[in-house]
Amino acid sequence: MAVQLSNLEHLPNYQITERLDVVYGSTVRSKHVGKDLFAGLKNIVGGELTAYTELLEESRQEAIDRMIVKAEALGADAVVGLRFSTSSIAQGASELFVYGTAVKAVPVSQQLQNPPSDNHYPSGQTPNPQVQTAPEDLPRFNPFG
């Protein structure tokens, strides 16, 4: 399973079984002088600064890729609580930072298909295979403690 990403504190249709660690990725980029001149002209007439849009998109993807490498190294199935941050490093250079909590997770359907053995039920009762717990009713794992 590829590492899944969620900006939520949980992963829909999955049960988080273990919190591993905080993972992050970052990149520092500077503007290209030629693109900066074009963007300055574009500011006069208005409109989208596509050179900057592309620069930010590439930066986000590079930071995410670096974070995923760290999550995979921990054996994570997912990163939850995903957030982005930016900061100015120097004149014309900015850092794009992404972070979240690496977790182990299993699909909810796997848990529902494997009910406990009969010896966990009093008086020889057996579970009703027709009754399943909805994902909303399962306890949520709080990755932040």
Overview of the structural elements:
The chain has helices at 33-45, 50-73, 108-113; strands at 4-5, 14-30, 78-90, 93-107. The protein has 145 residues and is α+β, with helices and mostly antiparallel strands. β3 and β4 (93-107) form a beta hairpin. The protein is elongated, with a radius of gyration of 23 Å. The two termini are 26 Å apart.
**What strand order characterises the main sheet?**
1-3-4-2
Q: Report the principal-axis shape.
A: elongated
Report how far the terminal alpha carbons are from each other: 26 Å
Low-confidence stretches: none
Percentage of residues in DSSP E strands: 25-35%
> Which structural category do the helix and sheet elements fall into?
alpha+beta
Enumerate how many helices there are, as a single number. 3
Order of SSEs: EEHHEEH
What is the alpha-carbon Rg in Å?
A: 23 Å
* Number of beta strands: 4
Mean pLDDT value: 77
Largest sheet: 4 strands, mixed
Q: Roughly how much helix do the residues carry, as a percent range?
A: 25-40%
Topology:
Blueprint: E1 4-5, E2 14-30, H1 33-45, H2 50-73, E3 78-90, E4 93-107, H3 108-113
Parallel strand pairs: 1-3
Antiparallel strand pairs: 2-4, 3-4
